[in-house]
Amino acid sequence: MRPLGILLRRELALAWGGGGGPLLALAFYACVATLLPLAVGSEPQRLAAIAPGSAFLALALASLLPLERLFERDYEDGALDLLALGGPPLELVCAVKCLAQWIATGAPLALLAPVVAIGLGAPPKLAFAIVASALLAGAGFAFVGGLGAALALGARRGGLLIAVIVLPLFAPPVIFGAGAIEAVAQGLNPLPALAYLAAYCLAAVAAGPVAMAAACRNALS
Amino acid sequence: MFAALANPQRFMALSRWFAPLLGAGAVACALAGLWLGFAAPEDYQQGDTVRMMFIHVPAAWLSMFAYACLAGASFFGLVFRHPLADAAARAAAPLGAGFTFLALLTGSLWGKPMWGTWWVWDARLTSVLVLFLFYLAYIALQAAIEDETKAARAGAILALVGAVNLPIVKFSVDWWSTLHQTASVLRAGGPAMPAVYLAPLLLMGLAYTLTFGALWQVRVRAEVWRRRAAVLQLRNAG
User: Fold this and answer.
1) Looking at the predicted complex, does its ipTM rise above 0.85?
2) What residue spans define the domains of chain B?
3) Are B227 and B78 a contacting pair, CB within 8 Å?
4) Residue B43, beta-bridge partner list
5) CB contact at 8 A, A56 and A137
6) pLDDT for B184 beyond 80
């Protein structure tokens, strides 16, 4: 376990070191949320109706930003070769990288999500549901997004390609995450939607690293 | 069967006759299906628009069948490392995207007179749209990686991951309450339509399937020719 712990610390340090870590994604999230009332009109009733859903959509978009550097950086400077040759299996290495991604970017974004949603006019009683579903969905975004990042290794215009690969796969967490918030807003039980969201994340955590490692080996071969 | 076909030489010899044969069969089935389709009486509710079914439903079937072929070929390419399977997967993707686009387009044209709207965000329509996006992502990934072997293997991983969408498309009408109707051909208790509609529908389904089979073989043949040309070019250059 020790090498994986060191790897996790390295990933977090890299996320914080180069360019302020989650700050860039948070700033992007705030920018998208600012443009939204300008685009759809700032009447409070209209905004309040779409606030939770659009906060979730912006969250999915902001989660795309750090993906491009997730494997590309290590691929370019050769660190990925060393990680592939090292003791722990590449599958676990990929899982740790995605875990670090979730801690460094997913969690801060999840904490900003209720601020954005309430700023757009969502009732404050939704804050807890928004944090819970954004945290869960963040894990799914990180592990599924990591797969897109690994597949796009060595491709031209990788960033755009990652978005095209990953956004269709983001459909279920967006449906169930926004569904859970909507259920709380209407006074219904959010647990079924949260359970589906958790199931998606568990499947992503279980299957994602295997596919990621296969994609990394393919790019390195 | 796959092992025998995996030999490019044998595949080329066989598909040389098989592909035109399937194409001719497709034309014959399409002609018969269209004839019966236009001869069928008007539906008591839908009127003339019921004939949309004969071009919409087979396209929707083929959109899923082509993805299953894509995923199957990807599996063979990934596990058994056979170059012809890679070529087959690569060749199936644009065809599948075409059928999916056709299904979305004809469904939209059919939805306007019947449902009163071009598009609704219900489970079946959305999951088919996601299927279309998966095809596009696969094609984009293939195009963006220069090394062909690497592109094929990365695409295969993506195709297998995207295969989880297939059961969602199939069962979306049963799991969620949707505007789109549930399955009416393959269902317990037999097809829910009279033979006068079922016969042209099945004929058109056969015609679409044969078209896909013929075009798929033609595209794989083109891929094999392209590789041979590239090898010749390299040999002459050296």
Assistant:
1) no
2) 18-237
3) no
4) B47
5) yes
6) no
A49-61 per-position pLDDT tens digit = 888 888 888 888 8
Partners of residue B34 on adjacent β-strands: none
| Min distance B219 CA to chain A CA atoms (Å) | 24
Q: Are A158 and B144 an interchain contact pair (Cβ–Cβ within 8 Å)?
A: yes
**B210: which 2 tokens?**
């044969």
Phi, psi of B212 (to 5 degrees): -60, -45
Residue B2 confidence (pLDDT) above 70: no
The Cα B89–Cα B92 span in angstroms is 5
- With 0-12 / 13-18 / 19 or more C-beta atoms within 10 angstroms meaning exposed / middle / buried, residue A203 is middle
Q: Based on the number of CB atoms within 10 Å of its own CB, is B42 exposed (0-12), middle (13-18) or buried (19 or more)?
A: exposed
Q: Are A162 and A68 in contact (CB under 8 A)?
A: yes
User: Taking the model in full, what pTM does it have?
Assistant: 0.87
Query: pLDDT digits over A54-87, tens only?
Result: 888 888 888 888 888 888 888 888 888 888 888 8
Closest residue, chain B, to A151 (C-alpha)? B154
